[in-house]
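Continuing from the previous page...

OK, I double-checked the sequence for 8-amino-7-oxononanoate synthase against my notes and this is the correct one:
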Amino acid sequence: MSESARELARKLLADKRVHSAPAARTVTARPAAAAPARAPRGPGRQFADHPEVAATVQKQAAIKAISAQSGLTNPLFLPRESPNDTVIRAADRELVNFSAYNYLGLSSHPRVVAAAKDALDRYGASASASRIVSGEIPLYGDLERRLADLYDQGDAMVTTSGYLTNAGVIGFLLREGDVAVCDSLIHGSVVSGTQWAGCRRINFRHNDPDSLRSVLKMSRGGFDRALVVLEGHYSMDGTIGRVAELAAVAREFDCAVMVDEAHSLGVLGPRGLGIREHYAMAGTDVDIWMGTLSKALGSCGGFVAADADLIGAMKASAPGVAMLTGGPAPSTIAAAAAGLDLLEAEPERVRRLWSNTRTFNDALRAHGLNLGDSQGTPIVPVIVPGELRAGFVSATLLERGVYAGAISAPAVPAGKERLRFFITSEHTGEQLRSTADLLAEVVELADRIPELSAV
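Thanks. Re-ran it with the corrected sequence; updated C-alpha cells here:
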C-alpha cells in the first residue's frame, strides 16, 4: 500500500467525529457553509438551487476536497490520452484498464479504424441531415440488413445513441393506457422511455418468471398494449437475463417483448451473437431486439431490429430516434460493420473473453471478495458498501496503476456500492491475477474505514 493511501486511511480512522460517534452511526461530512434556502437567482442562476444541480455540485466539491486532502487522484472524468484498450495512457502514466466495455478489443483494431477513416473520406464527418431528407447513405442499409438477418427479423434501424434507442422506441410505441412491464434491474434508458410515452411502468422481480406471471395476472387486463422489457446481460450486476423463459410467460398474456442486447451482443452465445444464440431462440420469440454499436462492436450508436413495417414506421415517424434527428456519423457505421466482420471471422476472441473471465472471477472468489449476484460473466461487480469506501478503493487502485470505476447510488442501491470491472479478450493472465491480489489488499483496508457520506 502506498504512503498516500495509508495516510488517507489514517486520517479517516482518526477523525474525531468518527471516534465520538456510536459504531453504527453514519457521520456526514458537509461543507462549512450552506447556501441560503432561497437566495435571489438572477441571470444565469435560475437553476443554481435546483435540487439535483445543488446536490451534485455539493457532492463534486466534497469529492474534490477529499482528493486534495489525501493526495489521491480523482478517478472520475479522468482524461485519457490513448485508445480505450486494456492498457491506457492517463495521468501521465500507463494504467491497466477495467473500465471499458470494449469486450473484444475492437475499438482500436486496424480494420475497424481503417473502415472509419475510409467512410470519413468518402462521406464526411457528419450525415448533416435526417435520413429522410438527404441524410441517407448506403452504409446504413447495408449494416441494417446484416443486423436484421442476425435476429431473423424483417428489418433493422441504426441510430446515433443506444440510450435514445430505448427511450425513443418505447416513447413512440406506447402511450397512456399502455403498460411497460420491466425487470426490476432494467436500464435507466427504458425508464426514460416510459416517462416519455406517458404509459404505466410496472416492475417484476429480477429474472423471476413467477413474479412476471403474477404481475401480468393482476394487471394485464387493465391495459391496451403491454410490452415486457428485458436485458440480455445486466450491466451493473453481471447477471444473464432469463430471456427465453420470461418471453414465454409474456406470450401467455398477449404481451409484446423487447430485449436490450447492449452488453450481450459480442459476449453471450458460442459465437458471441447474443442472448438469442445463448438460448437458441427463434427470432420471432421476441418482437423488438435492441442493441448498441458502442460495446463489443467497438463503435458508437444503437440499433433496433423488428418487423419490417414497424421499422419502416419508426424510420419515418419516431422522434428522437430517426425522424428529425441527424443520421449516425458515417464513420461510426463503417466501424461497426467492420467490428461485425471481425466478430464473425475471429470467434477465438469470444473464447479468450470467457477464458479471461473465468480467470478473474476465480481469483476474486479465492480472495473471498463479495461479487454480489453476478454469474461469472465479463461484467464483474465487487461490492464495497459505502460511497466513500468504494471511491477510496477506486482511487487507491488508480494510484497503483489499475483503473476501475466506482458505482454509487442512484445507479445502484445505497449499501450496494461497488467497483465494476469489465473483462476483455485482450487482458493478460498476469494483469488479471495481479489486479485480483491488489484489489483484495485495498478492500481489506477500506473495510476498516467508517463511512462518511459525500454530501
